[in-house]
Amino acid sequence: MEIRVFISLLLGLLLVFSPALRVVRCQDDVAVNVAEAEGGDLGIVGDDLQDFGDGYFSAAPGIETVCVFPKNAAKLVTAGEETDLLVGLQNEGEATLNVIGIRATLHYPFDHRMLIQNLTVQEFYNASVPVSTQATFPYMFAVSKFLQPGSFDLVGTIVYEIDQQPYQSTFYNGSIEVVEAGGFLSVESVFLVTLGAALVGIFGLWAYGQIQHFSKKTKKATKVEVGTGTVDANMDEWLQGTAYSQSSKSKKKK
User: Fold this and answer.
1) How does it sit in the bilayer (predicted)?
2) Tens-digit pLDDT string for the chain (254 aa)
3) Could you point out which of 87, 127, 130, 233 has its C-alpha 20 to 30 Å from the C-alpha of 147?
């Protein structure tokens, strides 16, 4: 009974801790040959989105984007610490564009409508990209240090203007892996190790129970055989000198 209760608790923990279609347009292992943006001064705006307006804009035709996580192909993001990525933009449109800034949001993988965090908004001043030109823009972000380790979806967009008309292009829409800072073992790792040890313990208890059950059956079978022999011997001793024993002897002589 105790083993069943323990197994039920483990299943409940699995349901709680079990972590959660990604459209990824980011090339991590391919070098991006780009020119520097003209006059690309940086400005950090914090965690609000008001500088870009409240709405979301469509992408301009002829604009291609790519992103790179430098020296971080696994896309590991340490909670509470800054992570760098590079956004490449290629202008194959018909007019020069001016990059306004970059913003990103963090979501649950199974439902992007569930927003976890608005990440840092980074502005660029006088960052123009002429026609048939490529440019790279750095972006730094940090997820909350209180965020539980696990897999989440990062959605990053770059906002720009063409002829004073705002546009935006999504440069990344895919997963990142959030890990704890400064520790070899995360909460999830400790849980998995504990779960593995518990499963091994349960298997050991089950095996021990099976051995005990088999041993009891063997002992019972042995006792029955010995007991029968003992009873027969005792019966012979008790019948010695009685009429039954004498009649048995006379039958044997005949």
Assistant:
1) Single-pass type I membrane protein
2) 444 544 455 445 444 444 433 333 333 333 333 333 433 444 433 333 334 555 678 999 999 999 999 999 999 999 999 999 999 999 999 999 999 999 999 999 988 888 999 999 999 988 999 999 999 999 999 999 999 999 999 999 999 999 999 999 999 999 999 999 865 455 566 777 888 888 888 888 888 887 877 777 676 655 545 455 444 555 555 556 665 555 555 555 54
3) 87
Predicted TM-score (pTM) of the model is 0.55
Rounded alpha-carbon distances, angstroms, from residue 132 to 61, 81, 158, 214, 227: 13, 36, 18, 81, 101
Q: Locate 136 and state its tokens.
A: 């790279």
Cα separation values, 127 from 21, 45, 66, 138, 159, Å: 33, 16, 17, 12, 11
Taking a C-beta distance cutoff of 8 angstroms, is the pair 124, 51 a contact?
Answer: no
Beta-ladder partners of 71: none
Contacts of 185 (CB under 8 A, 6+ apart): 193
Taking the alpha carbons of 163, 165, 170, 171 in that order, is the dihedral positive or negative? positive
Q: Give the containing element (helix H, strand E) for 178.
A: strand 165-179
Query: pLDDT per residue over 147-177, tens digit each?
Result: 999 999 999 999 999 999 999 999 999 999 9
What tokens were used for 132?
């048939």
The H or E element that residue 211 is part of is helix 187-239
Label the pairing between strands 97-108 and 150-162. antiparallel
Residue 25 sits at φ, ψ, to 5 deg, of -125, 55
Phi, psi values for residue 249, rounded to 5°: -65, -40
**What is the DSSP track for 100-153?**
EEEEEEEEETTEEEEEEEE--EEEEEEEEE-TTEEEEEEEEE---TTSPSEEEE
